[in-house]
């Protein structure tokens, strides 16, 4: 019995102490080194500023600053232009290895929409009735300078997304070289073919 009485007395004492506690927040003025963390003057983007001579809060980038994903290199190589004009030749040695690399990347990245032959015939193209992917073998695209084709691959066009996040600079030029090979294959004069291919065509001719 005494134990129960003692326990009840203890509980009562704790309850009384809690009731007597002042649980209100103590809003004292903070020490000055902390107060500057509570109130920090700032400028809004594109806002005005009386601190800078030009009156603008936002500062221009330091001269020579480039975005972290900017590709550094000669303009013809990384942009496909020279003094703002599309380059008329691929700024890399066009070798069989480059064309074959372009074929591999084209088949993976481009053929899904443009078709394995670049003729715009693909399953995806049949689902894009509003703006189907064009054939790359038509006279209009075949007339593109290599630099323009490179820029389309790099920056995207219409519904086509930029491919610069998927293909690096060399791979994009490789695709350009392969697309040119596809276009050339549609109108290659027989006289320009190797002897063995001309002989094979002669055997197959009716």
List keywords for this structure.
mainly alpha; 46% helix; 206 residues; 2% strand; Cytochrome Bc1 Complex, Chain D, domain 2; 9 helices; 2 strands; two-stranded antiparallel sheet
What does this structure look like?
The protein has 206 residues and is an all-alpha fold. The protein has nine helices and two strands. It has a domain at 75-196: Cytochrome Bc1 Complex, Chain D, domain 2 (Orthogonal Bundle). It has helices at 2-20, 32-38, 75-78, 96-114, 123-126, 139-142, 146-155, 169-185, 195-204, and strands at 81-82, 85-86. It has a two-stranded antiparallel sheet with strand order 1-2.
Write the layout of secondary structure elements.
Layout: H1 2-20, H2 32-38, H3 75-78, E1 81-82, E2 85-86, H4 96-114, H5 123-126, H6 139-142, H7 146-155, H8 169-185, H9 195-204
Antiparallel strand pairs: 1-2
Helix pairs in contact: 4-8, 7-8
Provide a brief overview of the structure.
The protein is an all-alpha fold.
Sequence stretches where pLDDT stays below 50 over 5 or more residues: none
The name of the CATH topology of the domain at 75-196 is Cytochrome Bc1 Complex, Chain D, domain 2
- CATH architecture designation of the domain at 75-196: Orthogonal Bundle
Helix/strand order: HHHEEHHHHHH
Q: Sheet with the most strands? A: 2 strands, antiparallel
Q: Assembly type of the shown chains?
A: single chain
Averaged pLDDT, please?
84
Helix content: 40-55%
Q: In order across it, which strands form the biggest sheet?
A: 1-2
CATH domain class of the domain at 75-196? Mainly Alpha
- What is the rounded distance between the termini? 120 Å
Rough shape? elongated
Q: Could you tell me the strand content as a percent range?
A: under 5%
Instruction: State the helix count.
Output: 9
